[in-house]
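Let us work through a complete example step by step.
Step 1: write down the sequence.
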Amino acid sequence: MKLLSIAIPCYNSEAYMEHCINTLLTGGDEVEIIIVDDGSQKDRTPEIADEYERRYPGICRAIHQENGGHGQAVNTGLKNATGVFFKVVDSDDWVNEEAYQKVLETLRKFVYGQETIDMLVTNFVYEKEGAKRKKVMNYHTAFPKDKVFTWKDVKFFMTGQYILMHSVIYRTELLRQCGLELPKHTFYVDNIFVYQPLPHVKNMYYLDVNFYRYFIGRSDQSVNEKVMTGRIDQQIKVNQIMTDYFVEKKSEIMSNKPLAKYMLSYLDIITTISSILLIRINTPESLEKKRELLNYIRQKDKKVYRKLRYGLLGNCMNLPGKTGRWISVEGYKICQKFFGFN
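Step 2: predict the structure and record it as tokens.
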């Protein structure tokens, strides 16, 4: 039995994918590494994937598909996963090997023990190129440590502190049961990956180790600000999908107050990011898109819109004059904290 399936979406990843895979190989036979070559054509990504499958049979699997984007690569990884738990590791990121062993030890306890969990959360580290101090995202204020807990035990999330794809490991069957399927040819779908399963999560566990290393520094990365503004329509699409999901599941979500508070807060930060980026583009078209997005949310559910309007989003609206510009800058700082823009 495989404890953990790890999907690695790869698109022209020759320059860094081997470092990623090599850190994951230290997990041994209990881990399944699914290398998804998403239609790479410009380099040796397909050959490297096949070479790892040949060298590490029973651990590495190479899957080749037509280009469908990051989300479709994750879908393929999940479809082919045989492990009890599932994680996504991007091909330019890696894991800390000592923390990795603690993660596997923890998962082993829940696979072979009397109780199980739906979600394991660990810390992640922003490996920002050129930064002397590495910023660690931990969850000390939000979760009890080293014990199984539920939503009623969740404490306080600080501003900019969210469960991201880097920090989460889900039970594989839960992801399938909740019908998770990410849209093709769309960036920023990692937010949907984290968001959609949350109403199905009952039991959680927080392991206070700095496991995932999130690399930031390449100019072509999806979280580069210039790249994000160029792909703003995809950010808006993700924003709308998350809104639709919240409204669809609203009665179920709102019956669990801590869950509802967190999911509204997450939708708030995503909508704030969309709004701030559109403000920073600062064209008539972008400002119209911002109005259209807010109208979309209002039409979907007026109560949800009002909750966002008086949350973080409400403090980052495009107000006139110096005050408005200052608020926009402060909102942008929050967005930087969330994404770690480079």
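Step 3: interpret the result. The CA atoms of residues 71 and 182 lie 5 Å apart.
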